[in-house]
Structure formats: structure tokens, C-alpha cells
Amino acid sequence: MKNLNLKKLFRLFVVVFLAVNPFNLFAQLKGDTYAAAKAKGSANWVLTYAESPGFAAKKNGAMVGITVDIMRKFEEFIEQKHGIQVNMAYEAKDPNNFTLFLDEVNKAHGGVFGLSNTTITDARKKMYSFSPPYITNIGMVLTHNSVPTMNNISEIADKFAGMTAVTIKNSTNEKTIQEIKRKYYPSLTIEYVPSFGDAMQRVINDPKAFTNVDFTYYFEAIQNRLPVKRHPGGDESTEQFGIIMPKSNDWAPLLEEFMNSFVGSVEYKKIVATNLGQSAMKFLDTLK
Question: Which of 20, 36, 170, 228 is the most buried (most CB within 10 A)?
Fold first, then answer.
């Protein structure tokens, strides 16, 4: 009888916990729409994020990164030009899971913004809204520095014989890996990890692994003197990053208006330099 009562008590606790905890598995992110904010003169925005060096990360308890700084400037723009007081709150179920991040944004409602190194693609535009691009990216193939250099992607089956590709589901980097497998390396084994940080750790610790990641991961590794090699043959055509939003986010036109005038400004360039460093800035200049 005692065990039965304990079981009932536990079930009751679980039900109550899921009902009152805003971060439970069934909760969906929701922020104020622009329409509602205009009527009351204030807005609550919810910002979710996936950890990405230089773009969005929590350091010493504070949010930092290019997208974080852009949203702060957008907040100022809304308050000064539209007279709406904005409160921003960061909520993320698992910042180290990029696939979950995309799903979280997709299921969100209203004034919710997703911050990370998120590539703008035609396929994603069908499911999400995007800001105008705020930076140009190039994907890189990285390995442990003991691996022989690959200067042409057609050499990959030979140079990377017996190696495993590590990537993240639903990312554009996964798409690149799948294209490499289809065109050049049919027998390639692909393993999946939750985050790009996990992929980098695998490469750093395992000479038999390689990954395709955005350029900022390479520069972060070099700055930290980690044993990582960039393979020129794996550099892919440029793509662009944007702030991602659910389709129901009616702030998108205002964010577009703001970014069209802000991106490229002196203040914008200062934000990029502060978050990425001078080496990355010089690299970005070569893409123009």
C-alpha cells in the first residue's frame, strides 16, 4: 500500500511539474506580435539560440555574438522610431542542439527570433521567415592537423580513406556531406552529433574523423591553437546567414527595414570585428 501511494504521489508531481513549468517538453515559445505591441505600446520578444562562436553564445552568464548585438540595435530602432518599449528574454531548451533549435523556432508563435549561424535557403524559406542576410559564409572541410592536405575535393576518397564524416542533421553542412558522398565517396560513413561544437571536438580528438563547418569554427580553433587543419579542396561556394523566425512573426518587415540600413554601417562593422576578430574580418573581405 505504501509503494502504491508513493507511485500515485510521483505521478501527481509529474503532472503538476509539466503543467506549471514553462520550459517543459511541450511548451512552445511565444512572443508579442507587432500588431499587439502597437496597441499596448510595449512588446515581449523571446530569443532562442544555438551556440555558435562569434554569432550567439552565453559567456559568463551573458549573451554575446553578432546576432545578439544586432537584436539589441533592432530593439533600439523599434523604441526610437516606433515608440514601442521592448523586453527581450532568452529561452533555449538545449543551446547545443542545432536540430532542436530549428524545430523550436518552427513551432514558435509571434515575436520569437532564432539566433545562430543559420543559412538562408529556399527550402527553409518555405517553413520560416528570415531577416536580410547579415554576413557571408564559406563552409570548410576540417580534420585533425595530422591528416594529409586535400587540395581538390575529387581526391577526398583517396586522401580521407577510412575516415568518417561527422555532421548535424538538417544543417546545410549535412547537405554538403551528403553531396560529397554521392559524387566522390560512395562508401563514406556519416555519423551525427547534436552540435557543431561536438563535431569540432570529434575532429580535434580523432584523426579518422572530418567535418564540414562554417568558417568561424576554424578561426576559433586557430585562435585557441587547437590541432585542426583546413583543406582548401573542401571550401564550398559562399552562402549567407540570417536571423530566423517563425512564419507568424509579423516583426519581419520591420527587421528587414532596420537591417537594410544597418548592415554595412560603421557600427555594424564594429560589431563584426568585436565578435569575430581581425583575422576573420580579413577573410570576409576576400569574399567580397
Answer: 228
236, with CB counted inside 10 A (0-12, 13-18, 19+), is: middle
Q: What's the pLDDT score for residue 8? A: 52
* pLDDT per residue as tens digits for the range 251-281: 999 999 999 999 999 999 999 999 998 777 7
Within 14-150, strands assigned E span 30-31, 42-49, 57-59, 62-64, 85-90, 109-110, 112-115, 128-130, 135-137, 139-144
Same domain, 129 and 266: yes
Instruction: Point out the residues of the chain with pLDDT beneath 50.
Output: 2, 4, 7, 10, 14-25
Burial 210-225 (b: 16+ CB within 10 A, else e): bbbbbbbbbbbbeeee
Contact 171/98 with Cβ under 8 angstroms? Answer: yes
C-alpha cell at 92: 533555449
User: Residue 194 has what pLDDT?
Assistant: 94
d(CA 99, CA 9): 35
Distance, CA of 73 to CA of 43 (rounded, Å)? 15
| Rounded distance between C-alpha atoms, residue 245 and residue 129, angstroms | 5
Rounded (5°) CA angle 127-130-136: 120
Residue whose C-alpha is closest to residue 116's, from 171, 36, 162, 40: 171
Query: What is the model's pLDDT at position 287?
Result: 65
Would you state the cell numbers that stand for residue 75, as one nine-digit string? 530593439
**Range of the structural domain that residue 211 is part of:** 139-237
Cα dihedral 136/141/146/151 (nearest 10) = -100
The domain that holds 248 is classified in CATH as: 3.40.190.10
